[in-house]
Amino acid sequence: MKFIVTKPVIFKTLSHLQSIVNKRNTLPILSNILIEADQNTLTLSSTDMDISIRETINCDVVEQGSTTLNAQIMFDIIKKLPDTNEVEFISNDSKILTIRSNVSKFSLSCLPKDEFPIIETKSSGKKITVKAETIFNLINKTKFAISNEETRYFLNGLYFNISSNDESSILTFVGTDGHRLATSSTKTKQYNNEIPGVIIPKKTINELSKLLAENSTDIEIDISSNKIIFYIENLILISKLIDGNFPDYKRVIPNNNNQQLTVNRLSLLSAVDRVSTIANEKSPSIKFKLFKNLINLSTINNENSTATEDLEAKFDGNEIEIGFNSRYIMDILDNLEGEEIKLSFNDNTTPIIAQEQSNSDIIYVLMPMRV
After folding, report:
1. pLDDT tens digit string along 36-87?
2. Quick one: which of 285, 275, 280, 330 has its CA closest to 307?
3. For 111-148, b where at least 16 C-beta lie within 10 A, e where not — what string?
4. Which one, 5, 123, 190, 247, has least CB within 10 Å?
């Protein structure tokens, strides 16, 4: 095998692939990237057995062939080469791969292609085509609420489903950790069939978000009962789905929060950030006292240190005293946009709803804390 490729081209692909490789893998082959050179195309693949990425790039193939190489070592070598350099890869027996670039030369031990797991890209699932930006925005508005609690594994990802009406289809992503819920929806062209909800793992969501941030074209999504495939230009991402039942998130969203607070988003974010300076893991809560034209924010930690701040706002309800996890409040405020936001309350024990003034497709729900 022998091929020549420019550093920027192969480095971009390696940056996609190496991030899913488990560096502490008990199987040495899963620490490697599969390299396949054929007819002036180079196909690179990596997998951790739950997520797989395969990407094809153009290059000058002198002699076709294949092998596998440690992902981290390959990535680190290419990263440190000058951007203007061409890189030559040569392997005569699939046991040693030589990388040459200008005056640099590396000879690295390889493992044969036969040991690398087969990545199945075929699926009999339902396919949709959607703009990369659409999926990217839906993911980024909800992924912060994904649970890290492994015992509730069905919350360790984002719920994704497609529902249809007479005129359009609605794509929805939902994340929750039991204390907060984030849901983001968008209308798009109508698809022939509704697609039942699936749970996409957190690691897949994070990798997908990075890939979509670089892309502005249409992508294709293939959804089956146990896996989901994303076709993004010359890259394919395949992921297992979480086998579990996601909670009925619509039942979590309160329908009788009739007391409305309107406030400047950045002003509230800054105030919560300042007051929460003395908060810690043992006492993370911050107290909101809501008056007609004022919010009083306060907190006290386990060492009896206190902080308080007043903030102008519009509130049309009865006086309420309610507490929240300060970090959760800041996560919500960070992910909302617009100058003013709307917080909806019922009483001091009912979850609140946070939304943008001009966008009802994003709904955040937050459980209160005792203070």
Report:
1. 999 999 999 999 999 999 999 999 999 999 999 999 999 999 999 999 889 9
2. 275
3. bebeebeeeeeeeebbebebbbeebbbbbbbbbbbbbe
4. 190
Q: Sign of torsion, CA 14 15 16 18?
A: positive
Q: What is the 3-state secondary structure (H, E, C) of 117-154?
A: CCCCCCCCCEEEEEEHHHHHHHHHCCHHHCCCCHHHHH
Q: DSSP letter at 369?
A: B
CB atoms under 10 Å from CB of 6, counted, come to 15
- Dihedral (Cα; 28, 148, 300, 353), 10-degree rounding: 150
Residue by residue, DSSP assigns 320-353 as EEEEEEHHHHHHHHHH--SSEEEEEES-TTSPEE
Q: What angle do CA 230, 231, 237 make, to 5 degrees?
A: 50
Query: Taking 70 as the threshold, does the pLDDT of residue 193 lie above it?
Result: no
In degrees and rounded to multiples of 5, residue 234 shows phi and psi of -95, 20
The helix/strand/coil state of 164 is strand
**Alpha-carbon 96 to chain mean position:** 37
297's enclosing H/E stretch is: strand 294-300
Beta bridge partners of 227: 240
> pLDDT tens, 260-298?
999 999 999 999 999 999 988 787 899 999 999 999 999
| Region of poorest pLDDT, from 282-286, 344-348, 361-365 | 282-286
